[in-house]
Amino acid sequence: MIQLCKDEPDCKVHVDEILHSIFFLGFIHKPQQFTPKDILGELMPALEETFPRPFESYTCKLPKRTPFSSVLDMVVSLLGPDEEIDILKNLQEIAKYMSDPEMKYQMQSNLFISFINPSLKPQTTSNAGVEARVLGKYQFTSSTICVSQTKEVQRSYYGVSMSCNGRQEGQIMVAVSCLRTWNCRVSNAVMTYDPNTKEKRKNFDHTFELPTNVRCQAFNVKTGNEMPPCKSCHNLFGLETTETRMWPYGNCAEAESLSKLFNGETFDAGQVVNDEVRRQVIRSVEIT
Predict the structure, then answer these.
(1) Would you say residue 203 has pLDDT above 80?
(2) Mean pLDDT along residues 90-114
(3) Is beta strand 144-150 parallel, antiparallel or unpaired with respect to 214-220?
(4) Which of 68, 144, 268, 276 is the most buried (most CB within 10 A)?
């Protein structure tokens, strides 16, 4: 990872985000808190010297997104947004490495450059077994990736599902994404539903139906198989599906992918938002 950032300076921003998000999620994890030392082991001194900011800020600043979202953006920036097949393939390799019990949470350089040469096999550190036992089954990988694009403009926009475990962690990161990261059309749709009751708010309905000229396709990160939208995404974005399963609103890859699409392309203005009502909803999201 250190060498990668020397060769590709723009990657340092993404690695800072990855580490910040991982450290924050470890910090808020219950019942057992994970420190950077627990996560990195003997790699910590070298990484702290090269990437000091995440070590300084993870206890006092919120990350903007979950770790695998930053991994995704790093891959896209290196390969280019039009290389959909290569992006999906290389994220698949990274996800497999990160899910390997012998490799779990070893933040090594070849873990993050595996998309450049997927034949590379990460090497474990001497205390990998200890760290794996400490961290247990905690996951920093996403299960789903989504690709969105308009038929007229073939540029692809990518998003991944929330790469964190636990109800509290998920709610916090969805709230952060709504308030700080996502396009307002997506965040307003997600905030339409109360995260605790999973019911629509009575005075704030900003769900929408995606225009027919938009492709929004999800894939399983590890297998590459196409996945139908869940019922939650149908409720939020009007995506056609026969799926009955529901995930927490905002958890799915479609939200991040569509947010980037709306930021990158021109669409008709969405539903007019009552600013005062939106402020009330934002306050309730912050409290939640």
Answers:
(1) yes
(2) 60
(3) antiparallel
(4) 68
